[in-house]
């Protein structure tokens, strides 16, 4: 995913939309922070004797990874719309526009 993020950053710099990249980066960091907070909470729970269900933890972290993937994919679609702005033959991903 890091290579995709670097490629997106380069594409956005050429379009002068670095703010979109920074917003995505901050959102991904917030998801990572949430995952770390959850890990710490589960560690405290385990130390206090609460049984941790591994399958539920797996689903939780899989869901967070899916959310991160969706955020990156949405930015990719946004960049595509920006790059094809004014192209009458291009079918937009976002009908309401990207500006």
UniProtKB/TrEMBL annotation:
Domain of life assignment: Bacteria
Source organism per UniProt: Paenibacillus lactis
Name the UniProt record assigns to this protein: Uncharacterized protein
